[in-house]
Amino acid sequence: MGNWLGLFKKGKAADKNLSFNEFEVLNLGVKYLDEKKHDLAAVEFEKVLKLNPKNEIAMIKLGHTYLQQKKYPESIKQFNRALEIYPKGIDSHEGLGFCYFEQGRTEDAMEKFNHVLKFDPNNEHSRYGLGICYNTKKEYGKAAEEFKRVLKINPKHKQADDMLKAYTDAGRK
Question: What pLDDT is stored for residue 90 in this prediction?
Fold first, then answer.
């Protein structure tokens, strides 16, 4: 588990409705998150949420920060907060899927990944998430199909490529 950590989109830009200070603080948090300075990132995202308690981007990034720190209850709380503001938020549903996967809640994770794929069938992150769920359930054929789909979307997706190579090496296809 945990190979998915590098999957999340980096540097999602703040929208035009943010104040300049809010935008600066958010970008600093993203910088820290990209550098894996999770404690510093969390502080910056919390600052943004003090400036604007409804900043969905800060909630999602804080959720990603906690997810990478394996603080799953805190991460789930942030993704759910973001969903209260924007129920169709793909990043929030996807983040919840990875939290649930890491908690061993494979069926819940699959539900979230499939939800994202209804709206965005070429979402490589949710396709990969679905693949690792199938792998966990020992449904290797379905897992391999998802990893192949990921590689069709993004031929440079290292984790999906590694998983497919592992299947080939083990004689699973």
Answer: 95
The sign one gets for the Cα dihedral 101, 106, 108, 113 is: positive
CB 7 within 8 A of CB 16: no
Angle formed by the axes of helices 90-102 and 124-136, nearest 10°? 20
The residue to which tokens 């590098």 are assigned? 6
| pLDDT tens-digit readout, 5-17 | 444 443 343 444 5
Closest residue by Cα to residue 91 from 65, 122, 66, 126: 126
Q: Are 77 and 45 in contact (CB under 8 A)?
A: no
Which pair of structure tokens corresponds to residue 51? 């400036």
68-94 pLDDT, tens digit per residue, is: 999 999 999 999 999 999 999 999 999
